[in-house]
Amino acid sequence: MKEKNDYNKKSNHGKTKENKDNCIDIRMCTKEKIENNKCKNCGEEASYFSSENNGWLCENCRSIEEKLDKLADKMEKKLSERVYSFDLNELINCLSKDEIYNIARNLGVNKISGFNKEKLIEKLLEEYKGLVEKRLLVFEEERYKILKSYVDSKGVKIFEDIDEEEADKSVYFIQQGILFPTAKDGISIFLMPEIVQELIRENNNIEYRRVIKANSEILNIVRGMNKAYGILRLKDAKEIIERYSNIENCEVEKLIREAGYYYNEYREEGIFIINNEIDDFEELLKDIDKETDLKYAMIPKEELLNMIEENWVYNSKAAKDFYKEFTNMFSVDKDMLIAMIEDLIFDVQENEPKDSVDQMLELINIENEDAKFVACNMMNKFVKKIRLWKYKGSSTNDIKSNLVSLKENKYIGRNDPCSCGSGKKYKKCCGKGEKVINIYK
User: pTM of the predicted model, to two decimals?
Assistant: First the structure.
């Protein structure tokens, strides 16, 4: 969660007043001044002036910048030693043994732990084409689009012309030996070997596009589930995916695993898929196990797909309702409010709703008690609508609603329409595998 000063820079340090629209203004009116003897990066006392950054630096930040400069020089020298070639053999041979070993392992070459560099190269070149062909079958439209763009640009992209998001994700392709960083005339570039270009061209057909389209749908659902549920067993993930998409003849586990490396949004821990925002997943599992007989929330497909978008936190219905209500009462910086929404959504995963709200109120530091009371009520209303990982994607409101429904003894027969709204019979949907009439809500 953000520090108090991060919000105070945008919130007028809690000084509230009524404006002519009867809103309470909590925006900052003045900016903090930074003195010359303060470090530009961390604000500590500075002793060095950096002409390159046009600012003062403390001893620690200066040391970090020197290390980064040395690393950049080292990388530049390393790239200059690599070849500019589209021949896989030449590209592989200029790599270190460790780099070759990592590419081989990432592609799936087995039994190579005792190989010397020469033997590693021989083994990798022997199996490379077949392994890349298999890897292409678990790609989705996004990865194919990036690779196709290299074919369209004759196998070369200048590093500075690549946007930040693609550059970050290109690391995945480098680790697979599908792209190779090098330099030409002092310019850093990424190269695609001719053998990979040929495979991309060969797969530029309707049949392959159907494969990656189906993969895209499954992976988008998985990524949405990762945001909604936080943690779930792989076998449960497959069962949930079946509610939304046909996974017949599809290697779901391979799809999920490879996408995890590429998107870096989740990881595998034994039999579990875990959101990378979760540090102590074992503690979360204990919380989940406390809720006996709790099933994964049935979430509309459209909502899951919305969760993979960049602004998914803000674009959820609960967040939009909160945003509208809050801005009707308070005159507040949009970025500040979106940051508050994001922090509440993630903080409430680890803390009780009341604690999350109290902490947020302390951070934005509203002094006017009436305004504080109104903001508190709005936040409490919002956090109770947030899908919680410990409740398998249900919100606090959902849990309370389910308890009320259980007390009212609302039964669903196996042949009745499922209450989740899927349109299927209960026995073929949420009641699949059960042999008795079950209470759903």
Answer: 0.74
Residue 164: which domain range? 82-202
179's enclosing H/E stretch is none
Name the burial class of residue 387, with classes exposed (0-12), middle (13-18) and buried (19+) by CB atoms within 10 angstroms of its CB: buried
Residue among 428, 403, 398, 406 at smallest CA distance from 415? 428
Strands 330-331 and 24-25: parallel
For the chain, what percent of residues have pLDDT higher than 90?
Answer: 50
For the chain, give the mean pLDDT.
82
Q: Does residue 224 sit in the same domain as residue 260?
A: yes
Judged by DSSP in three states, 231 sits in: strand
Are 86 and 198 in a shared domain? Answer: yes
Residue after which a domain boundary falls, among 65, 81, 97: 81
Residue closest to 341 by CA, chosen among 367, 358, 318, 366? 318
Kindly state whether residue 368 falls inside one of the protein's structural domains: no
Measure CA 393 to chain center.
17
pLDDT of residue 79: 61
CA 195 to chain centre: 31
Domain C-terminal end among 178, 202, 226: 202
Q: Are 162 and 171 in contact (CB under 8 A)?
A: no
**Residues 232-278: tens digit of each pLDDT:** 999 999 999 998 988 887 889 999 999 999 999 999 999 999 999 99
Least Cα distance to 208 among 271, 112, 281, 133 occurs for: 133
Identify whether residues 123 and 171 lie together within a single domain. yes
Phi, psi of 372, deg, nearest 5? -60, -40
Kindly report, residue by residue over 156-184, the tens digit of the pLDDT: 999 889 998 898 899 999 999 999 999 88
Shared domain check, 224 and 195: no
Does residue 135 sit in the same domain as residue 94? yes
